[in-house]
Amino acid sequence: MKNSIKISVITATYNSENTLIDCMQSFASQDYNNKEHIVIDGASTDSTTKILYEHIENIAVFISERDGGIYDALNKGISHSSGDVIGFLHSDDLFSSTDILTAIAASFKDEKVIAVYGDLNYVNKDNLCKIIRKWKSNSFYKLSLFFGWMPPHPTLFVRREWYTKIGGFDKRFEISADYDSVLKFFFDPNFKSVYLPRVFVTMRLGGKSNRSFKFIFRKTIEDFSILKNHGFCFMFSIFILINKNLRKIIQFL
After folding, report:
1. Tens digit of pLDDT for each residue in 163-181?
2. Topology of 7-251 in CATH?
3. What is the dihedral of CA 55, 61, 64, 68, to 10 degrees?
């Protein structure tokens, strides 16, 4: 018998042959029945599409074509999803255990709950048992947003209609559109979230937003632009960004 809440998990891929099998198996091993995997590939040139076709029985929607970047791919995935709840599993990430979607679905039985999120571990890309950084979140308080707080986005599961409400991810931002969406969600007084104090996702260290100083600088510029768009003045934006980055440093300790 299927569970009542349908969860769509979206994975964007591009030349992901080295990590994709782990990602696919992680989704397939989830013990929650009412789920679908949406995979949007950016016309990979390695063996990514071959691997995906080998796992096609576990994929509800598979599209491979050129796109405008990761957020364009995620928006495309949202538009092709049919779940009540949307989550994301990047091609180099894994769910930390087989019951993650089951735990998430249980929280969504409360119809007032709009979002569920948890914790995230960054690990060595060659040794998944070696934890380098722990992103331990906490229950949401609106004041937290003014001190650089955001939930680990790969752990954030949101009711589908809310992505429609905010118009999906803003593709003007190549690295930080997830931060923009978090502010849009969590500043809304009707956005009720639940924090589950457990690790949802294991992420290989070296993602686009933290692989080099160049990307970190670009991300900071995008974050600043996003805060400006949300009405924050120059000095308050700087204050928030300092706290946002201090939170990251603490995660390594």
Report:
1. 999 999 999 999 999 999 9
2. Spore Coat Polysaccharide Biosynthesis Protein SpsA; Chain A (3.90.550)
3. -130
